[in-house]
């Protein structure tokens, strides 16, 4: 990996295009390096993972509405929309599938200077691959780039510090991945990356206060914008430049300011794109910093005994966990039993309380209104708080994978005065956890979440196709989807009439 120093340059200063970060990203995208076997295996795992969570969310209102919008844009040689037959315009297929993947907050994650769900790259890159008649090998190469670029930007450039939503790294990565997929030249990818960044930079209010369904729509919007940016760039349209480093660019006015510097690692020429191997998926449908606390709560239940004997619980954890999903956020909604599902899955106090009581976590039952409004849950929930611990913050930002941690230390004080303490650094499903996910676990997750939604024969067909993704012909690539019965689709809320 080569580190690239990125900072603001005045308009009058000499700053050759070849030194722009967008150009360096484009060079990575256009490097014809082959995808390593272990990287390809993980890419297939993540396609399965995306299909699993899309199946589980298929009948939810935001997904139903996004699907209805896509179905209003049929296209003879277009892309597939998860759950239904037919072919649709690629940007709208990317939109609908992106919402389905993101709705339950249940797919893969990478956390460093910034946060990300790099599996959000799959819907737009797959949609373009199907539309453009590309092969499974092209798809694998494109996805390797999408993961690489998003994860490398996340390693280096913090967005949330400046209240910018993390999808600002997704627009450029998806555009770069599509560029690799299509075999575009460096200049075209450069323009597409710049356009994608310019159109997908927004505030983090989507993940603050009363969190709405836009939390699921925001990544899908970034993927849709990436598809459109590539289309425009292929037609010869340019982008604001230099998009990151310009005097009125992203760094100067949206991030650290004119004096800020970022060191962005990117693969050198001929270097394999392996960043996906540093990411991890979720066993539980909740914000990633809740994964280890859920496992910790399950582990502590027997030691605690009767939960009504608890006087207080403090979760000592990282800056991010405390301020984004903990009591450091100052969001009263995180203790509101009538809060939206999107808000509850960003409340580690609620999640820890329910995991302690139930000893398990379910993507629907754990968020049901009757579950959140149980009096004993509300009582326990309000006994839980979080506190930032500098050591957990340091480990969160560590670049050593053996030291990096996303968990917490729980101190449970009983009414008797006894204090029970335990901690867990990483979730059980993490690559360094107690039960790391591999192919069998991804398939099991798909089977579990697809049950009652996707017919067993259709599950079998999809799993057979996806596990030879890299060998698929252009004619076979549209088979990388699942369809469901009309009875299943009828369970979804009817989408009100919009513009389309």
TrEMBL record:
Ranges for domain MmgE/PrpD N-terminal: 19-262
Domain MmgE/PrpD C-terminal residues, every copy: 284-468
Catalytic reactions on record: citrate = D-threo-isocitrate; (2S,3S)-2-methylcitrate = 2-methyl-cis-aconitate + H2O
Source organism, top-level taxon: Bacteria
BP terms from Gene Ontology: propionate metabolic process; tricarboxylic acid cycle
Top EC class of this enzyme: lyase
Pathway it works in: Organic acid metabolism; propanoate degradation; Carbohydrate metabolism; tricarboxylic acid cycle; isocitrate from oxaloacetate: step 1/2
UniProt-listed InterPro entries: 2-Methylcitrate_Dehydratase, MmgE/PrpD_sf, MmgE/PrpD_sf_1, MmgE/PrpD_sf_2, MmgE_PrpD, MmgE_PrpD_C, MmgE_PrpD_N
EC number(s) stated in the UniProt entry for this protein: 4.2.1.3, 4.2.1.79
Alphabetic keyword roster: Lyase, Tricarboxylic acid cycle
Molecular function terms from GO: 2-methylcitrate dehydratase activity; aconitate hydratase activity
One Pfam family this sequence matches: MmgE_PrpD_C
Subunit structure: Monomer.
Family recorded in the similarity comment: Belongs to the PrpD family.
Protein name in UniProt: Aconitate hydratase
Species name: Nocardia vermiculata
